[in-house]
Amino acid sequence: MQTLTIDDGGNRLSVQLNRPEVRNAIDQQMVDELHEVCADLERNPRILVLSGTGGVFASGADIAQLRERRRDDALAGINSTLFSRIAKLPMPVIAALDGYALGGGAELAFAADFRIGTPALKIGNPETGLGILPAAGATWRLRELVGEPLAKEILLSGRVLNADEALAVRLITEIHPAVDLLPAAHRLADRIARQDPLATRITKSVFHAPPEAHPVIDQLAQGILFESEAKFERMQAFLTRKDTERKMKK
């Protein structure tokens, strides 16, 4: 990997965007390497923790490359295809955001299941100022995340949110000092990892199903989980623990 630093932690994969000389701008090489990460996580589902280096998550797409792209490049959906793939990964994705998360960097963060940040976070989509639009998910994901009025302000006026503003609208869920950002991301990953992996995977899939698929998809998914060994083992462990606690109180 030339643009990513990867650490395999067993039940999770930690991936750092690593182009600090250009504030981790997302170029074609990074896109290609992130596709390799996705392929690995699709074969062997694990939690993904995404972060940046040098006090920056990602300042956006690489403008030097973006300037040269034409109609056919836009129609190919270079970034949108990748970010959709990341959003559909079997296990949850955590984005740990420090400094700039702008343009394509913001859209990458929007594709994650969880976003946490530092006080230095600046997140938004200033693409219209460059004569383009945020075409890798922001025009629809952002409305789902923060509501239409604020989404329009970000997309149409170029408003960039600071960490407190992002927290207030729940675009991020936690703020941590930079030194504690990755430890906090891993604490969240630890909580996810304590859940049953199959139940977590199926819950994520059902959550993202279209409205018309409910409630049938919920019932079918529950039917699968009702037959899993983990369901019986975990419920028996719960009952045994409660019984032990009750006896200790007597």
From TrEMBL:
Transmembrane segments: none
Pfam families per the UniProt record, alphabetical: ECH_1
Gene3D superfamilies in the cross-refs: 2-enoyl-CoA Hydratase, Chain A, domain 1
CDD domains hit by this protein: crotonase-like
Domain of life, per lineage: Bacteria
Protein name: Enoyl-CoA hydratase/isomerase family protein
